[in-house]
Amino acid sequence: MATHFLGDTAVLTGRTMRHVTRSLDTVITTAITPIGIMLLFVYVFGGAIDTGTVPSVDYMLPGILLITIASGISYTALRLFTDMRGGIFERFQSMPIARSGVLWAHVLTSLAANAVSVAAVVGAALLMGFRSGAGVPAWLAIAGILVLFTLALTWVAVIPGLTAKSVDGAGAFSYPLVFLPFVSSAFAPTGTMPGPVRAFAQHQPVTSIVDTIRALLLQRPVGTGIWTALAWCAGILVAAYACAVICYRRRIS
Hints:
Helix content is 76%, strand content 0%. It is an all-alpha fold. The chain has one domain. The chain starts with a helix and ends with a helix. The mean pLDDT is 84. It is found in: Cell membrane; Membrane. It is a multi-pass membrane protein.
């Protein structure tokens, strides 16, 4: 059964990956916008933001990476919505394939596409002067957090992809996710924010994730923040996966 699922998922992932490679503008778009934001915050607003002794680009990069992922997963919802409206799911139901493989194909494609976008953003940051003395373990930890964050948001994206009534509705859900890093510690210390905004910023998932990645890049102690970041990612992932599975079963029943 596991072999059957893995084989079907691999074939279906190849199908969705071909759609991405035929439309590379989606990957390019999800990288260009965050790079533009990074240029804006580093070269225009950088002097107005107190980053201490940390170069602006080093300080901003963790938040930009999360914006990149939040932008990229909107295309997962759009691809899934297109498949639903195109009748692809009904065709697959008449074939002897693992039903869950269809969803996992879109999820794995999201991971691959977002990895390319994140790599492009990191490359742009290097050209802007980003440097880190973090060792291999720290980089592996950062990669793991970003993968877990991507998985969590991708399963969130699956829900509107299955339930939206229009193309605009399928993609619009990502706007609040892209906005979250701006109300966090990504671009300014939360202590400088007004009371209610500060309370929200300090207790939303992006702040703990940004703080952890920043500490790893700057070779600073991560403390218990890394467990908070992992708990947020895991909690969102489990909740979104459960909701997505329920929505999928309702759609194909």
